[in-house]
Amino acid sequence: MTKVLYVEDEIFLAKIVKESLESRGYEVIHIDDGSCAMDAFRSQQVDICILDIMLPKLSGFDIAQNIREINKAIPILFLTAKDQPEDVIKGFEIGGNDYIKKPFSMKELILRIKNLLQLTQNNLKESSMSEEIPIGDMYRFSLSKMTLYDGEKHIQLSHKENQIVTLLSRHQNKTVLRQDILMAVWADDSFYNSRTLDVYIRKIRAHFSQDNRIQIVTLRGTGYRFMVES
Predict the structure, then answer these.
(1) CATH says 131-228 is which class?
(2) Helix 106-129 and helix 159-169: axis angle, to 10°?
(3) Domain ranges in the chain?
């Protein structure tokens, strides 16, 4: 049975979501106070965390940061009443895997939960297949540790950066379709997520800036080619 840590202070909404998930076979640990969330996380073996961003005492962002210090792989889904790009990107940078805007349908929430759990399983399989991927002569990428080593230091990647670099590094010198990245990382190829992907590509390019033989080439209207000269 999938166990969900659900942190939400809107009691009426929380009751509906909890009962709906439980009716579909999920076990739900509901917490209505952000300051109590970490105690629940440490004491329960949960499979996914659903965090409202606006919480009393401790925000969903703060909780996610604390969770990531303990567990870098567990999927985190943010619930938000905001849809500003800055807020969404901040959530991804902290280590969130996805977000859903209030008000939402249970159908959408369950679909996103299933997608995140499946993506996590796929990442674990890939991690066991290859612990470290060489990129050019200088870089070494670790999917499980979510780090990029540039020969001098380890760069800690965010969850989304880790997923994108995984796709690109496994297809060096080949074209990766933009839609394939969006569906693999966000399970949604909407225009908004496409804009967010552009932000991440710029950040990833900066990570590889120490070696000019490595380039992420944009193929307009198609996708990207991760060029690595030997």
Answers:
(1) mainly alpha
(2) 50
(3) 3-124, 131-228
